Amino acid sequence: MVHDPRLTLATSVSAEARATMEPLGRMFAAMPQQSIPTTQDGFDQAATVGAAVQEAWTASAVASLSPVTENDTIRGIPLIDVRARDKRDDGTLLLYIHGGGFVQGSARASLLMAALMADRTGRRVVSIDYTLSPRADYRTITDQVAAVYEALVESGQAPGSIGMFGESAGGAIAASSILKLRDRGVPIPAAVLLISPVTDLYAHGDTHITVADHDFLGGARLRAVYRAYASEADFAEPYASPLFGDFAKGFPATLIQVGTREVLLSDSVRLNRAIRTAGGVSTLDVYEGMPHVFEQMVPDAPEGRQAWDEIAAFWTAWLTPGETGGKAAAR
Fold first, then answer.
1. Residue 89 burial (CB < 10 Å; 0-12/13-18/19+)?
2. Residue 196 — left, alpha, or beta (φ > 0 → left; ψ -120 to 50 → alpha)?
């Protein structure tokens, strides 16, 4: 039998994380490789199946958290308002952009991440159900996120009380949407959390090579979904690849979380360096042996608990209920 390096975990990984990651890894490895869609109908069908699988996989975890949810629409864009049961939020708000490689996922399918965020931080979460690629490209999707944010501010939610977060593709969308808002002259959120974010659609980072054999992401499929989100001619556009933004013009306080076992590690390293070099505030929070978006995979393992503690502390440090502009506006 040929050894699959994706199934080998470092001895430095906690026993609690290992107990979850090992069976999940075997399950992912056993799944047949799906063909890459070539038509809109094909992408739609794959997205429908993927959402159903994700909802089924996370159903018990969501049920254990028992979040209070409400479906809503802002400027024609559907969303889900998520709050932790039996916890009173402090008036701050977290705007969530889900992952899924730009072509899959939904606010409903990604409810676990929103529910965990609400539960672990005690804050209200608004999850945007943006239009998936290739039906919409990076221009339309970032416009949708910007529209929801602007509507929240116009309704009285102070920018200094708003944080934005997203994982994987959602991290790219979150960062790029903030750049777009800033360039439009809109007061930006006080803080942004990027979990295992995509930042460079060229995929030029070192770990796209060095970690490729050990990550379930990567390869031709990753490149295909990037091209569904933006044409290669636009890969250097900051609203598509936020790594290429001009951060000297202003950007919120940033927390980037990532694991050492993912091809997107370099995306995180390079974005953190770009923000700091431009004089911004950014923290790169790297977790040993952890895979892509481990925060929802092993939330109760030592690695997951530490990550969520860092996230909660980050929001507390940067979000101020009722303070227009927040600390980010002072830079």
1. middle
2. left
CATH number at residue 179: 3.40.50.1820
In a domain, 68, yes or no: yes
3-class SS of residue 127: strand
Q: Tell me: the pLDDT tens digits for 7-46?
A: 999 999 999 999 999 999 998 888 888 788 999 999 999 9
To the nearest whole percent, how much of the chain has pLDDT over 70?
A: 96
- Residue among 98, 208, 214, 292 flagged as catalytic: 292
What is the residue range of 191's domain? 41-323
39 vs 318: CA distance, rounded Å: 43
Active-site choice (106, 110, 133, 168):
168
124-152: average pLDDT: 98
Tell me if residue 292 is catalytic: yes
- The residue annotated as part of the active site, out of 262, 266, 268, 303, is 262
CA-to-CA distance for 232 and 234, rounded, in angstroms?
A: 5
Is residue 168 annotated as part of the catalytic site, yes or no? yes
